[in-house]
Amino acid sequence: MIIDAHHHLWKADRGDYHWMSPDLPVLARDYLVDDIAPLLRKAGVDRTILVQAAQTEAETDFLLQIAEETDFIAGVTGWLDLSADDFEARFAHYRRHPKFVAIRPMLQDIDDDAWILQPCVVRNLEHVAESGFPFEFLTYPRHLPHVVAVMRRVPALHAVIDHLSKPPIASGVIDPWAAAMAEVAAFPNLYCKLSGMVTEDDHGQWSPARLRPWIAETVRLFGPSRIMFGSDWPVCRLAAEYGEVIHALRCNLETLLEPADMERAFGSNAIEFYRLNLS
């Protein structure tokens, strides 16, 4: 079974996508189930994780409604306000939905890089950790010291780094990103998504070979049991189409992993991380 552990769907006129701009016409349009379904069939992808793209509960509700009506969506990573006094009540409310499988704040878009270290946020993350519920870090490399700090405070947090923390692939300079990721990877319950790479390279210049050093370093640091494939579709369309993204990852991992570990990276690690019930 192949699982795409990271893609988005959105309806532009909902109006809460703060990043959406007519300057990016490839993204400033609707992307819904009928748009991605044929791409999944062609690539042989069986299930997906639908990930939030707006900092509102309204979008979380929108995504959960789509998931209810769509068999191939195995789960939704939604947004909840981790700084809210009523977080525990809102968390309990959403956990009743069988396809609500993770929480993601958009740390990359918050002005305060250390926002996640606020006492109220740490307290709520402790509650998430006690519940054994998955959490996602959407970060740039500059946030990684704060990821390390919060993991030291909440070591039981079951979490994943999205998009390799968006390293500067276009620059070709792997340090200091690699050193920061080594600190993150030292936490055994922290995973990493092999996603979002094509858009961190020069959009017209990317190639599977240019991604290889970043993929290889991530595999070395996290090992074959804590990595997972994500397409980051449709954001990836800024640089590449769905089939190109999965091909680029597959042709790199085939030289780095044994066949059994390939199956983990493309499927069973996501099942384990999100604790999916696919029966």
Automatic annotation (TrEMBL):
Signal peptide: none annotated. Residues 3-276 form the Amidohydrolase-related domain. This is Amidohydrolase family protein. InterPro entries: Amidohydro-rel, Metal_Hydrolase, Metallo-dep_Lactonases. It comes from Sphingopyxis jiangsuensis. Pfam families: Amidohydro_2 (PF04909). PANTHER family: AMIDOHYDROLASE, AMIDOHYDROLASE-RELATED DOMAIN-CONTAINING PROTEIN. The lineage of its organism: Bacteria, Pseudomonadati, Pseudomonadota, Alphaproteobacteria, Sphingomonadales. Gene3D superfamilies: Metal-dependent hydrolases (3.20.20.140). It comes from the Bacteria. Belongs to the metallo-dependent hydrolases superfamily.
